[in-house]
From TrEMBL:
It is found in: Membrane. GO terms for molecular function: cadmium ion transmembrane transporter activity; manganese ion transmembrane transporter activity. It is a multi-pass membrane protein. Keywords: Membrane, Transmembrane, Transmembrane helix. It comes from the Bacteria. This is Mn2+/Fe2+ transporter. The chain crosses the membrane at residues 12-29, 49-68, 88-107, 127-143, 155-173, 193-218, 239-262, 282-306, 338-358, 364-387, 399-421. GO terms for cellular component: plasma membrane. Pfam families: Nramp.
Length: 425
């Protein structure tokens, strides 16, 4: 049958996989240094004690993104998700726009720093700041020339290879299923170990896995795919489920490697070099080589995704505050001159965090994702109101979804308060 700008046919698993897209892009963008760092630290320092945060955070993220996507597909006016938030209150576009700008800067900070460290190791030229500058300059070229699709295909190959190695190591290490089950059901906060306390890691894990403001990217990827009306709802949900399942597999594999390989060898993660030890212990130089190539692929993909995706969220928010700009520049966000400046801000200003003497990749990844949870309660309250509007008809939330949203709001509120306390302490 014909749906929107695409033809969707029942072709079994192969056809379904070919139809997927936004979820894969979303996973590639979301899977960055933070997941690698937080899962490794949690596994190496606390075993499986904090494992309960992984399913809890992924459930919250799925609920958030799925409801936002359904709203964008199903509202009769054809509003974007940010337009919907404006209908709830004019405060929301202002908040979301500033939140995306600030967090975009901070998220990109540790990714640029991580890319610099990876290249410094790969080329044996130990000046990460210089490499970070090169990364930013190359990203500017890639965005301007619109050649990232070609580069991204190469990056995906390295990412898949690194993922398979982590999964292989995780299986080979014969993980403790009892420990995983106990950690998943235990809701335990263990005693502090290593450089980062258990509460701090719990909040940072929740921040990186839940997704924060980056969850707004999925509806824009969805729109670019041509999914624009309720007939795409089932395909969108299956796409997001697939993305969530892949996130579980990847993060769980990294976690197991931390718990079963780094921890028994008394390797405490304080830098990305410590994480590479997991591969070098079993594969020698080739293991480290593969790790750093994979890390570069992960963070470079995320740098491009965030510096190109988050400005769309910000410009959309700007158009809700100043509707005359939307009337002047049209529906395509890239046509607004501010898109370029927001993109440059998110891509270029984070280079200051790569200057020698600034916090390293691991420290940045941990604390930035702690800050990332602070804005989540406000966003969830907005989603709760938005998704229960009478104008949505049969696409309004059911009672179960409302229970999940309320529970998610309470959890993120607790995390936000804890994040403020941890940051100020």
């Amino acid at each position: 049958m014909q749906v929107g700008t695409e033809t969707v046919e029942k072709k079994g698993l192969k056809g379904l996989m070919l139809a997927f897209g936004p979820g894969i892009i979303y996973v590639l963008g979301e899977l960055g240094a933070a997941d690698l760092v937080n899962a490794s630290i949690s596994g190496s320092s606390y075993g499986y004690s904090l494992m309960w945060i992984l399913p809890l955070s992924l459930i919250i993220r799925f609920v958030i993104v799925n409801i936002m996507s359904r709203y964008q597909l199903s509202n009769s006016e054809g509003f974007s998700i940010i337009e919907g938030f404006r209908r709830v209150h004019k405060f929301f576009p202002i908040f979301i726009g500033f939140y995306a700008l600030i967090m975009g800067h901070l998220y990109t900070s540790y990714m640029i720093s991580g890319a610099g460290e990876a290249l410094a190791w790969l080329f044996r030229f130990d000046y990460p700041f210089i490499w970070s500058v090169i990364v930013v300059l190359s990203a500017l070229f890639v965005i301007r020339k619109n050649v990232f699709n070609t580069i991204e295909n190469v990056m995906k190959v390295f990412l898949v290879l690194l993922t398979l190695v982590f999964i292989g190591l995780a299986i080979w290490s014969t993980p403790s299923m009892t420990g995983i089950i106990k950690g998943t059901l235990g809701f335990d906060i263990p005693a502090d170990v290593g450089f980062y306390g258990a509460v701090l890691m719990a909040i940072s894990l929740a921040g990186s896995v839940t997704g924060s403001v980056t969850n707004f990217l999925y509806p824009y990827y969805m729109k670019e795919k041509g999914w624009v009306n309720p007939l795409h709802k089932k395909l969108q949900r299956n796409d997001l489920l697939f993305a969530t399942f892949m996130s579980i597999i990847i993060i769980l594999a990294i976690w197991i490697v931390g718990a079963e390989i780094l921890r028994p060898n008394n390797i405490v993660v304080s830098s990305i070099n410590d994480i590479s030890m997991a591969l070098s212990l079993y594969f020698g130089y080739f293991g480290s080589l593969l790790f750093y190539i994979g890390v570069f692929a992960v963070v470079y993909s995320s740098i491009i995704a965030f510096s190109n995706g988050l400005p769309k969220v910000i410009v959309d928010a700007l158009h809700q505050v100043k509707p005359e700009r939307k009337k002047k520049y049209g529906e395509k966000y890239e046509n607004d001159p501010m898109f370029k400046w927001f993109s440059l801000f998110i891509l270029v200003t984070p280079i200051i965090w790569s200057i020698p003497g600034m916090p390293g990749v691991v420290t940045l990844a941990v604390y930035v994702n702690v800050l990332g949870v602070i804005g989540m309660p406000a966003i969830l309250i907005g989603i709760l109101i938005l998704s229960n509007q009478k104008t949505l008809g049969k696409y309004r939330n059911n009672w179960f979804e409302n229970i999940l949203l309320v529970a998610s709001t309470l959890v993120t509120l607790w995390l936000a308060i804890a994040a403020v306390v941890e940051t100020l302490s």
